[in-house]
Amino acid sequence: MTTVITHNRRRSRLSSLIDQPGGISTGIALKQAAQNLSSLEEQSLKLVEQTIQQLAALPAPDGIENLEGALNKAYALSAGIIDAAGPFAREDLCMAATNLCDLLDGSPSDQPFDWRIITVHAQSFRLLLALPLEDKATRQQVLDSLKDVLKSKLGS
Amino acid sequence: MTLMTARSPGIGETLRESAVFNFEGAVTMVIDDSSFAQELTIRALKGFGLSTRHACSSAAEAIPILKENAVDLILVDSDMPGMSGFEFVRWLRRSKLEPNAFAPVIMTAAHVRQSKVQEARDCGANFLITKPFSSLTLLERIVWVSRDNRPFLEVGDYLGPDRRFRVGDYDGPERRADELRRKAGL
């Protein structure tokens, strides 16, 4: 039988502060946040480009004993793309990066990994960055083909 | 006259554009090993009227601060070298630090590994937000955790807010709306 201990319900200081007189509306808060973030958009894209370069330059591990470390490096780089691109409505980049994270996370580290998957994703990231934002059809094609890679490798 | 209220949205509900809130004076901590991601979070919070008092690049940097200072809100990244965000929240909840052990915690994650899903559920954070998320989502979750009055439960290895969410309309008093009504003489 599992014992359940219930601690007293307590009101956080934050819940008192939120009701202080004054403050701002959601609309103003979001406008201010967008203004604060906008100056970082260019830096975000540069960071994404650098991360893609690092990903493309990652050497395939020379033995199964080095595979786990290599997969972790690629995973961290891919997650970094989501970190950098996320706040700027680049869902395409984030979806491609999530696809790669899923693939790397789902791949056993004691079996050979097809390193061409990394290359394909790096090329796809570059294509997504280069495509005009209005070219939604090509963007979708790129994402669909990456999803197919995920399905064929992990069967999900 | 349209009355504004800071009534918090439930899970999945959208925060109204006219809802008013005030976070002035709140002590906020942001923990993220990525300096760029940390900067993004700090700037978004600033827009909401939340200034970040403690910006830390690791859990190890945050822990001594939490031992000495009361914090009202913590935003922590899940995937960090050394102590992960999950391990950090687990430590916090069991730290017996008053009031920090019960502080609202929002965890952010670019991606959650399959092997970490259970850990994410069991670490004791009030909420996990997966990236990419909009500023609106972040704001909604902050307002939501500030109203989160779920009791803390200790069940086996788990210590944190009751993981059972109540789905449905909020039926408590609309404190801010009542105040505005009074002021408006309604």
What's this, in brief?
Chain A: This is Chemotaxis protein CheE. Chain B: Keywords: Phosphoprotein. The complex is a heterodimer of chains A (156) and B (186). By secondary structure, chain A is mainly α.
Number of distinct helices of chain A: 7
CATH superfamily of the domain at 28-148 in chain B: Response regulator
Give the helix tally of chain B: 6
Q: How would the global form of chain A be characterised?
A: extended
Radius of gyration of chain B: 17 Å
Gyration radius of chain A, in Å = 21 Å
Task: Tell the overall outline of chain B.
Answer: globular
Across the major sheet of chain B, the strand order is 3-2-4-5-6
Protein name (chain A): Chemotaxis protein CheE
Pfam family, one (chain B): Response_reg
InterPro entries (chain B): Bact_response_regulator, CheY-like_superfamily, Sig_transdc_resp-reg_receiver
Keywords (chain B): Phosphoprotein
Can you describe this structure?
The complex is a heterodimer of chains A (156) and B (186). Chain A is mostly helical and 156 residues long. Chain A has one domain. Chain A has helices at residues 13-17, 26-38, 41-57, 67-85, 91-106, 116-130, 136-154, and strands at residues 4-6, 24-25. In chain A, helix 5 packs antiparallel against helix 6 (116-130). Chain B has 186 residues and is of the alpha/beta class. Chain B has a domain at 28-148: Rossmann fold (3-Layer(aba) Sandwich), CATH 3.40.50. Chain B is 32% helix and 18% strand. Chain B has six helices and eight strands; from the N terminus they run ββαβαβαβαβαββα. In chain B, strands 3-2-4-5-6 form a five-stranded parallel β-sheet, with helices on both faces. Chain B has a two-stranded antiparallel sheet with strand order 7-8. In chain B, strand 5, helix 4 (117-122) and strand 6 (127-130) form a beta-alpha-beta unit. The longest helix of chain B is centred in the N-terminal third of the chain and has 13 residues, at 35-47. The radius of gyration of chain B is 17 Å and the shape is globular. Mean pLDDT of chain B is 85; it is low at 1-8. The interface between A and B is large, with 59 and 61 residues.
